[in-house]
Write a structure and sequence with these properties.
This protein has about 210 residues and is an all-alpha fold. Helices cover about 65% and strands about 0% of the residues.
Length: about 210
C-alpha cells in the first residue's frame, strides 16, 4: 500500500446459512448494500454418497436398488440411487419380458415375410418349427441352470434366425418339388435340400464350438 493510505480490507466470503435456509437450498449473506448485499440461489441438484455392501448377484442388486428407492420416496425427496450394478440388475429383472417381446416380435415378422413367398400352410409350419426350437432351448437352459440374461437372449435370437433359415430352404424346396402327393413332394425336398441343410447346420455347430 502507498504511504498514508490504509489497506482496504478484502471482502470476506458470504457465510452459508444452515438449518432452515440450507434445507431450502438458499445461501444467505449479511444484509447490506453494495457488495455486502444478500444473494439468493437455488440448489438444482445434489449428490449424497452412501456406503453400502454391494451384492454379488444382479437380482440381489436390483432388490437393494428397490429398497433405496422406497426409502427416498418415503422421505419425500426427489431422487434416485445409482450404481453400475443396478443397471445390470434391472436388465436381468426385466429380461423375461424382453425375451418374450423380442422373440414374439421376431416370429411375427418372420411369418409376415414368409407369407409373401410361401403358401400360408408352409409358412405356419416353418414358424411352428422355429417356436419348437426356442422352447427346446428354454428347456435346456432350465435343465443346465443357465440364467436368462442379455447374452443368452442374443443366443436365442440367433438360434431363431438360423432355424428359420433352414426351414425356409426346406419349405421352398417342398413347394417347388414335382409330385402328385404331399409325401412325394416332401421326399423330393429332403433328397435335394436335406444334405445341404444338414451340412450347413453341422458347420455352424462346429463354428460355435471352436
Amino acid at each position: 500500500p502507498r504511504r498514508g493510505r490504509a489497506p482496504s480490507p478484502s471482502p470476506s466470503p458470504a457465510p452459508v446459512a444452515y438449518g432452515h435456509a440450507a434445507q431450502k437450498g438458499v445461501a444467505a449473506a449479511p444484509e447490506g448494500d453494495g457488495d455486502g448485499g444478500c444473494t439468493m440461489g437455488v440448489v438444482a441438484a445434489h449428490r449424497v454418497v452412501v456406503s453400502a455392501k454391494m451384492p454379488q448377484m444382479h437380482d440381489e442388486a436390483y432388490d437393494q436398488w428397490a429398497n433405496f428407492t422406497r426409502i427416498i420416496q418415503a422421505s419425500g425427496a426427489r431422487g434416485y440411487a445409482y450404481h453400475p450394478k443396478y443397471e445390470f440388475g434391472y436388465v436381468d429383472k426385466m429380461m423375461l419380458r424382453f425375451a418374450v417381446t423380442n422373440l414374439a416380435g421376431a416370429t411375427a415378422a418372420i411369418l409376415v415375410v414368409l407369407l409373401f413367398f410361401l403358401s400360408w400352410r408352409v409358412a405356419l409350419i416353418c414358424c411352428f418349427g422355429v417356436i419348437c426350437i426356442d422352447v427346446l432351448l428354454f428347456g435346456m437352459m432350465v435343465l443346465f441352470d443357465v440364467k436368462l440374461n442379455s447374452i443368452t437372449l442374443i443366443s436365442l435370437l440367433i438360434a431363431l434366425a438360423l432355424a428359420i433359415d433352414y426351414s425356409c430352404h426346406l419349405g421352398h424346396a417342398y413347394e417347388a418339388a414335382p409330385g402328385p402327393t404331399r409325401r412325394d413332394k416332401a421326399a423330393h425336398a429332403l433328397e435335394t435340400m436335406g444334405a445341404s441343410i444338414l451340412s450347413a447346420g453341422a458347420s455352424t455347430l462346429l463354428g460355435t464350438l471352436f
